[in-house]
């Protein structure tokens, strides 16, 4: 399954009439240039699961960082690293759940 379809399905599975109103997720651009992904984990089965911070810099434009802070998964990356950040989130979720 491609990563965008998986993220859509994961988001949909969290929506219960309340979670999406209070928490949710977002993808935005950053000025270096690149991407920022924020996925709120509160009231999901992932909120208590440990995540080891990742900080990879291959080149000035090929990099990513992923971490959890205050029950939010954060992933930032270069302009071509959005799918890689989302894949890291998917890998972590699938290794730690039965989804």
List the helices and strands and how they pair.
Layout: H1 3-14, H2 19-22, E1 25-30, E2 34-40, E3 54-57, E4 63-69, E5 72-78, H3 82-96
Antiparallel strand pairs: 1-2, 2-5, 3-4, 4-5
Helix pairs in contact: 1-3
Based on CA atoms alone, the radius of gyration comes out at: 13 Å
Mean pLDDT: 96
The dominant shape is globular
- The total number of structural domains is 1
H-E string: HHEEEEEH
Low-confidence segments, ≥5 residues, pLDDT <50?
A: none
Placed side by side, the strands forming the largest sheet appear as 1-2-5-4-3
- What is the helical fraction, as a range of percent? 25-40%
Oligomer: single chain
Q: What's the number of extended β-strand segments?
A: 5
User: How many helical elements?
Assistant: 3
How much strand content do the residues show?
25-35%
The largest sheet, given as strand count, sense and whether it forms a barrel, is:
5 strands, antiparallel
Derived structural class: alpha+beta
Distance between the termini: 13 Å
What does this structure look like?
It is built from 3 helices and 5 strands; from the N terminus they run ααβββββα. The chain is α+β, with helices and mostly antiparallel strands. The radius of gyration is 13 Å and the shape is globular. It has a 5-stranded antiparallel beta sheet, covered by helices on one side. α1 crosses α3. It has one domain (3-96).
């Amino acid at each position: 399954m491609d990563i965008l379809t998986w993220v859509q399905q994961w988001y949909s599975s969290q929506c219960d009439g309340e979670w999406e109103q209070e928490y949710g997720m977002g993808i935005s651009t950053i000025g270096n240039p690149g991407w920022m992904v924020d996925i709120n984990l509160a009231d999901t089965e992932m909120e208590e699961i440990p995540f080891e911070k990742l900080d990879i810099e291959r080149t000035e434009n090929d990099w990513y960082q992923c971490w959890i802070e205050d029950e939010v998964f954060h992933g930032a990356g270069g302009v071509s690293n959005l799918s890689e950040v989302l894949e890291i989130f998917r890998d972590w979720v699938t290794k730690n759940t039965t989804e």
